[in-house]
Amino acid sequence: MAESWVNLAERIGSDLHLELSGAGGRRAVLIRALRDAVREGRLAPGTRLPPYRSLAADLGIARNTVADAYAELVAEGWLTARQGSGTRVADRAAPPARTRVPKRAPTRPATPAPPAYDLRQGQPDAASFPRTAWLAAARRALNSAPNEAFGPGDPQGRVELRRALAGYLGRARGVRTDPERIVVCSGFAHALRLLFGAGGGGMLRGPLAVESYGLGFHRSILATAGVRTVPLGLDEKGARIEELTESQRVRGVLLTPAHQFPTGGPLHPTRRTAVIDWARARDGLVLEDDYDGEFRYDREPVGAVQGLDPERVVYMGSVSKSLSPGVRLGWLVLPEHLIDGVLAAKGEREAWASVIDQLTLADLIESGHYDRHIRRMRQRYRNRRDQLVIALATHAPHISPTGVAAGLHAVLRLPPGTEQSTAKAAAWQGLALEGLAGFRHPEATMPAPDGLVVGYSTPPEHAYGAALEALCRALPPG
User: Fold this and answer.
1) Rounded CA gap, 454 and 301, in Å?
2) Which of 16, 23, 221, 226 is the least crowded, having the fewest Cβ atoms under 10 Å away?
3) Cα–Cα distances in Å, from 421 out to 98, 124, 428?
């Protein structure tokens, strides 16, 4: 007999695959197939089998053959049969645990124990994700979404989200835009790939000026696209915009003007206007990474540079810091002449950003829950930073955070020559954190201060005090 599929979905909740093959008559083959299904766990203890008449019809064999097979398996203890309960797999027929002789594995170096406290930068407080508000927004969005929303996605992004973003960004970040200038993407890295393209196939070309400290991951994306990056020096006023005029080939600059990453200062107002003047004079382009612009604690957040000239600035943002990096949604606010090229790079259909997530975020913004979440997290992160400042003042008064009170991290400047030893001491204290040198552009010529980049948003509330104590123990003495 050939093997058969028996559809038992309506009776036992799933399909049952019986291998009706091998030597012997139909009764013997059926008994063996059922016994194997129980032994291998495909029929779990307590599973109700179909009446023998139904199974006989499904298999195309005689009723008596199935009845005899059931009776034999009941006698063997594989099945039980009770009046009114039908025939079920016996509880004691659970498949025995398979024992295998362990193979000798090659000797591997022991993996280090995970850190006790995570003070790495860039991660929001995962426990504070607004689950209830997100779920309610998703329910409302799904109930009100038109049917066409569940077809092939528009590469520009759902109009509901683009409308919501245009209103929010104008109100909260001073961005001048309308929904037609916004393209939804899956985050900042995706935005860079859309603008420059892998292997040099994008709309924009290098060299591109970047701040002398930043994420190496972003520089790697640009390098993969064939874009050479030229470092700009940094000082207490932010990126040294005057250095742009020294390179005749540079036509674009990537900045984090609201809160320089990672050193922590905003771009000075005179340099904000200077970079726009440079872009106008050189037919250049400013790429604005507004990665955590909503989180300023000592005063109102500074507005976006894009508001000074929407035709000279590409504004990029995401929810990675405000909500979660697990929600893969970001946006580009584009000069008009770049919109078609970015949409062509995305393709005919949306392949990255979930339509359901887009609709949910749109509702979250329009309902006001996004603003309320931002205000709540702003207060929480401010409290975390204040605790860090107090701990340093108490246990290491010779060390203090630099930059403005903003964002999800702080930079602690260290005595010269102590960064590596302090990072090692922190590891011994069970801390995961990063040294400032790891963010430095390899071609930067400005002096390289020693420092630690300390993220204060990740540790759970109950562990944050202990994490700060461990950090203070790792710092060099004054």
Assistant:
1) 21
2) 23
3) 50, 28, 11
